[in-house]
Design goal:
single chain, mainly beta, 4-stranded antiparallel beta sheet, F-box-assoc_dom_typ3, F-box-assoc_interact_dom, F-box associated beta-propeller type 3 domain-containing protein
Length: 159
């Protein structure tokens, strides 16, 4: 699930097996649907939802060797999807997580337990070893969002 502005978003399928993004507008408490590009509905075996440069983004695995990165240039307009980037995974061992605030693709290389950052075609690539006695399924990456809300520490002895 992705939080973008005042909406919560999630990718799902409708009764016709078409994939779409279901949105929930927090301001007016209503649901909406956002269509995905046709090639995602025709060929996709898995999608990741996120944000790229402040815009809605979908990372889609086509079921063969390629991941596609799609960005919606105008929010809520189905025809505004643009294929930003395609990267190949002939090994079958890449697991994309999303994008950093600097628009670098963050993914895990399952075969060698690395977290990798790729600047999508610019040639900047960084890789970090993450294995520390645990298996690859124990890795959890969460998005950090600054907040002005103070969370008070728990008082000892109080439940």
């Amino acid at each position: 699930m992705v939080y973008l502005g005042l909406e919560l978003l999630l990718v799902t399928k409708n009764a016709y097996k078409q994939q779409m993004i279901v949105s929930f507008d927090l301001a007016v408490e209503s649901f909406g649907e956002i269509g995905l590009p046709d090639s995602i509905n025709d060929n996709s075996n898995g999608n990741g939802l996120g944000a790229y440069g402040g815009k809605l983004c979908v990372t889609s695995f086509n079921g063969y060797d390629d991941y596609e990165v799609w960005v919606m240039n105008e929010y809520g307009v189905a025809d505004a999807w643009v294929k930003l980037y395609v990267f190949s995974d002939s090994s079958g061992y890449l697991d994309p997580y999303g994008f950093t605030s600097n628009n670098m693709l963050l993914f895990r290389t399952i075969l060698n337990d690395h977290i990798d950052f790729d600047d999508l075609g610019v040639g900047k690539f960084e890789s970090f070893m993450i294995r520390d006695g645990g298996g690859p399924d124990e890795i959890k990456i969460v998005r950090y969002v600054d907040s002005l809300v103070w969370v008070a520490p728990a008082k000892h002895g109080v439940r």
